[in-house]
Structure formats: C-alpha cells, structure tokens
Design goal:
The protein is mainly alpha-helical. It has one domain. Helix content is 63%, strand content 4%. Helix 2 (29-64) runs antiparallel to helix 4.
Length: 253
C-alpha cells in the first residue's frame, strides 16, 4: 500500500515539476535566437566526432576483409584509445587482428554523437535559455565543474570546493561536455543505450537517451523528465532541418 501511495505521490510531483517548467521557459523570440546561435556549434562538434567514427568504421571494414593496417591507421587507433579513455596497450601479434577489432567495437561505443536536441535541452535547462551570466562568461552552458581553482565557486564544503569550468570558446565547452558523456563511468547507461540504437539501425534518439543522463543531477528522474519535456515542448522534430541544412552531416549520421 505504501509503495502504491509513493508512486502516486511521485507522479504528482513529476507532473507539477513539468508544469512549473512550462510556465518558466516560454519559447519566445529570445529562445529561438539562443537555439539558432547554439546549434551550429553543436553541429560542428558532432561533425568532428562523426568523422572520427567514420574512420573507425572504415578500419573495422578493412580488417574484416582480412587486410592489414598502415602505420597511420594504427596511430589513429592509439589516439582514439587515449581520447576516449580506452586501454592503449600493444596486442601480441598472434591475436593482433581480433584484439584491434574488439578495441574498435569499444571505441565506437564511445565515439558517437550526442543528439542535437538533447544538447540543446541540457543547455536550456542548465543556463536558463542562455541567460546565465556565468554560462556566458565561461562558455560553460552545462554546469560542468572541476576541483582545480578557477575563480567561480559552485559548491563548497569543509573538505571540497568545486569550481565552474571555463573555456576559451563555446566550441571548447561543448566539446568537453560531449567528452564527459562519452567517457565518464556515470554515463555508461547512455552509451549502452546509444550503441543499442546503432545495432538496430536507428539514429540516436534525443528523448530516449535523456534517460541515460540520470546521474547528471541529484534530481535524477525529475531532471531527465525535465529534459524530455523541453525536447517535446520546445524543440520540434524538424528544428535541425529548418535551422541548418547540411547533407554531408546527414549522410555521416
């Protein structure tokens, strides 16, 4: 009985939180300007990732056909292992091919895009449609923090102080945000969900993948449901097509 009552109460709180958010973030002309400003930078970072992914897929295809690798391809795999925090040890020659194939599979799980609408939704929620002075000053629209002193204190306790990360450009801020999602253990669920979509021949879905970011905030389900609501309410399905037309990008996805 208590379990049922708790679930009902949770649903009521969730509904209230979503209603409050709708009232708090109307999609005004200012909101559209923020999306139009932010989206090209998101696409630029995703394009970089997609080119890396395409190179990994080409190497994987080459190995599956029994061909060998050039030195520059081996170097590329080593760089990807370092960038995406994978083991970069040199395999024994006897199992070289299978070891490299396994490593590519693990790299492809991490070397992939974060859907544009999900990136936009998090930036909207974390920065208040880009109105946060701290976000604009630091090019950090996602609330990313560090322990290294950086000027802007976010949280502080008797033992630990967290500072808001600062970036030279918006591109750098978005790049680090995606690197965080693609490498940190906290977001393994997100990566597994995305990889499963790829295996099924689907493109990564923003609304579904929002659930994989449950550990981004202490609010957990309330936070991920807020992201999903923003995607549904303010980011229509054709927003990417209307704001940016890039056939090369579409082909790489």
């Amino acid at each position: 009985m208590r379990s049922i009552l708790f679930r009902i109460l949770f649903c009521l709180v969730l509904a209230w939180a979503n209603h409050a958010l709708v009232a708090a973030v109307p999609f005004t002309a200012t909101g559209k300007e923020f999306v139009s400003y932010f989206l090209p930078h998101v696409r630029r970072v995703n394009l970089d990732v997609l080119f890396q992914r395409a190179h990994l897929l080409n190497i994987q295809k080459k190995l599956s056909k029994g061909a060998g690798l050039y030195i520059h391809e081996i170097d590329f795999l080593a760089k990807m292992a370092q960038r995406y925090k994978l083991p970069a040890d040199t395999p024994a020659m006897a199992d070289f091919r299978q070891t490299v194939m396994d490593r590519i599979v693990r790299a492809l799980e991490r070397c992939d895009i974060v859907p544009e609408k999900l990136v936009l939704a998090q930036a909207i929620v974390e920065s208040g449609w880009g109105k946060s002075a701290a976000a604009r000053k630091t090019n950090n629209y996602f609330g990313l923090t560090q322990r290294r002193p950086n000027g802007l204190v976010v949280t502080q306790s008797e033992t630990t102080t967290y500072y808001l990360k600062s970036y030279a450009s918006l591109y750098d801020g978005i790049k680090d945000y995606m690197r965080t999602i693609n490498t940190f253990p906290s977001y393994k669920k997100f990566r597994l969900m995305r990889a499963d979509m790829r295996r099924k021949g689907q493109k990564p879905d923003a609304e579904q993948l929002a659930q994989g970011l449950i550990r981004w905030s202490e609010r957990r389900e309330l936070y991920t449901e807020k992201l999903r609501m923003v995607i549904r309410q303010y980011l229509p399905k054709d927003i990417e097509v209307r704001l940016l037309r890039d056939p090369q990008y579409s082909a790489l996805q």
